[in-house]
Amino acid sequence: MLTFLFALLLADGSAGWHIWSPREEITPAHSQSAAGELTLEGGGNAAVFGGWERLYPNLKGGTWYRLEVRYRASGLEYEPLQLPVRLVWQTAAGERAGRPDYAWQTTTVAGERVVTLDAPAPHGAGAVKVQLLLQNAPRGKVTWRDIRLTAVAAPAARNVKVATIRLHPKGADPVAAFLQLAQKEVAGGTDVILLPEGVTMVGTGKSYADVAETIPGPTTARLAALARDKQAYVVAGILEREGHAIYNTAVLMDRAGRVAGKYRKVYIPREELEGGVTPGSSYPVFDTDFGKVGLLICWDVQYADPARALAMQGAELLLMPIWGGSLELAQARAIENHVYLASSGYDFPSMLIDPLGKTLVRTEKDGTVATSTIDLSQRLPDEWLGDMRGRFHRELRLDLPVK
Q1: Across residues 194-209, what is the average pLDDT?
Q2: Using one digit for the tens of pLDDT, what is the confidence trace for 100-117?
Q3: 148 Rama class: left (phi>0) / alpha (psi -120 to 50) / beta
Q4: Distance of CA 43 to CAs 25, 33, 38, Å?
């Protein structure tokens, strides 16, 4: 189906910006100041969609470019959806090249919002249209300024070597069995060592309360020794006690053996509730020296919101200690949030899944370790959908109430 494009060139055209909209009747009100600021307003039109557009010629396919735009906005209900910023790549002949890229990384600097995007021009591209849009914001007003598009170096690789443990110990000290296997089988240069859920309880016949301990505590001290020896981050699921509450917790140890963070399982299955486990109430994301990670635990994978909340906060790699569960849902969480997901389980594969749902490494043999290296700087665009990482952050509807 052909799309009708409405374009109104500015009288002076000095900045090269003009207004684009699919239809004249939904074109936002617009103005340009003498200082070059570009303003859009919804004007009470709930269907408003369109905005400022400028063509940048003489680009080179394969070269990386950085878009940076400052703006002030008011009257918005949901900023990510209502202020799309896009790079629409074209060939030198004016045909579309590849798929548009969405700028989604937004910060606040000195009271202004700043949105940025680093992206490579598709092979065959010779130009790009920068679009600064207003979408479905009847009361919205936005003023864009200081718009910059510059060539930049391609990002350096961020290689992360992940080792995930597959072991179901039986005995009084399961933690010792995990540490022994990791010391023996995890190679040097590993960045993350992932252990399963409940490493202090599995195979012991003890209850949650029997093995619950503080964090930091005796088990984190033992995990710390492994982290220091391997110079790796270590993640393991333990039972945590705080006052009267017992939590099913995943702990993150850094390379120096310090507790870098912990996550208390939010979704508690009936067996754990009947055993007196208390649910957590937040989805923290942790900074590491290679990127942002989030933690999930077992039953969390049955529901969409834990992985989604972590991805929306910038998590690039989800680490999931698990007992057993749905492999299909684990793959779905990786795909729908466009993140890597690693698991370590007993009745579930110890594996690593990429953002397209592909299994990179997997083991179900007891007493083994599955290892794979991923590059967190790598883009994995879909041929038809484009880079879903950016689209995910721009298009996900978190503004609608669930009744």
Answers
A1: 98
A2: 999 999 999 999 999 999
A3: beta
A4: 12, 18, 16
C-alpha 20 chain-centroid distance: 31
Question: Which of 153, 182, 197 is the endpoint of a domain?
Answer: 153
3-state helix, strand, coil in the chain (%, to 5): 20, 40, 45
pTM of the model: 0.93
User: Does residue 332 surpass a pLDDT of 70?
Assistant: yes
The pLDDT value recorded for residue 11 is: 31
Residue 61 DSSP symbol = T
- For residues 144 and 252, membership in a common domain is answered with no
Which has the closest alpha carbon to 241: 213, 282, 208? 213
Q: Contact at 8 Å (CB) between 284 and 263?
A: yes
67, 137, 30, 3: CA torsion to nearest 10: 80
3-class secondary structure, 231: coil
Q: Which amino acid is at 24?
A: E
Q: Which amino acid, residue 10? A: L
- Judge contact between 254 and 285, C-beta under 8 A: no
How many CB atoms sit inside 10 A of residue 90's CB? 22
Name the residue with tokens 């880079």: 387
Strands across the sheet containing 368-375: 259-264, 245-253, 233-242, 192-194, 159-166, 368-375
Domains in the chain, number: 2
* 403 falls within a domain: no
252 in Cβ contact with 216 (< 8 Å): no
Residues 168 and 30 in one domain: no
| Distance, CA of 320 to CA of 211 (rounded, Å) | 20
Enter the tokens of residue 118: 């680093």
Identify whether residues 84 and 18 lie together within a single domain: yes
Which pLDDT belongs to residue 8? 34
Range(s) of the domain holding residue 338:
159-375
Tokens of 209: 């309360």
Token pair belonging to 139: 């009361």
What confidence tens digit (pLDDT) does each residue in 245-268 have?
A: 999 999 999 999 999 999 999 999
Judge if 249 and 149 occupy the same domain.
no
Alpha carbon of 71 to those of 13, 35, 106, 107, 145: distances in Å?
Answer: 21, 14, 10, 11, 6
